Amino acid sequence: MKKMVVLTGAGMSVESGLSTFRDAGGLWENYPVEQVATHEGWERDPVLVNNFYNMMRKKLTDIEPNEGHRLVKRLEEKYDVTVVTQNVDNLHEKAGSTKVIHLHGELMKVCSSDDPYNNDYVEDLTGRDLEVKQGDKAKDGSLLRPFIVFFGEAVPEIERAAQACQQADIMVIIGTSLNVYPAAGLIHYVKRGTPVYLIDPKPVNAGSTVIQIQKGASEGMRELCERLELAL
Questions:
Q1: How confident is the model over 5-21, as a mean pLDDT?
Q2: Which conformational region is residue 202 in: left (phi greater than 0), alpha (psi within -120 to 50 degrees), or beta?
Q3: Helix locations, 15-107, DSSP H
Q4: Which of helix, strand or coil describes residue 217?
Q5: What is the SS3 assignment for 23?
Q6: Looking at 39, 102, 104, 188, which residue is catalytic?
Q7: pTM for the predicted model, two decimal places
Q8: Quick one: average pLDDT of 75-89?
Q9: In the chain, what are the domains?
Q10: Which residues, 6 or more positions from 125, have their beta carbon under 8 angstroms from its beta carbon?
């Protein structure tokens, strides 16, 4: 079975009703990104940051995958699919995708504030109280913080994503302008001659060899499935 990597950005989830960081002028749900998505913001006011992500988790519970997410799952009928997402939502998992690498963390998880990416201290909030309360502690005794890769922090999953891209027979990019690094650099890891499809309603400067489908996530995925002769 051929290997496929699907790299998704904020445009993947917009049709489900999720706001993006960058399309709102540096705001996320009317909060400055510096306030709720940086280490400095966390150190300045951890209660505010946790309350913000509590709010976002509650919002996410009412949001469903769109047709684009479901069609990414359908690709598994014909390909060995690894989804690499820049999104912190769980909509790919809700749609049934079985291999998902989250580059920027996961909204439905919390971690140690002293050792954020130590898996021993990462906790899944799905199926329990989604609210982190003031003073809640991780297993190492530090304050619980959102399992989010804040701006300026290293991206721990980038090596695993790069390895998947190196092994890919096909790459699909959905809903990202390829301006956010290191994720944008993943396209350079695919082998020369590997077909690369890019789905985005706006033109993206991705090189002449990239096959662009200038449509939104769901409409673009329908066209891609037709091109790949995958029954809808």
A1: 87
A2: beta
A3: 33-36, 39-44, 46-61, 67-74, 91-95
A4: helix
A5: helix
A6: 104
A7: 0.93
A8: 96
A9: 1-18+65-104+154-232 (3.40.50.1220), 20-62+108-148 (3.30.1600.10)
A10: 57, 108, 109, 110, 132
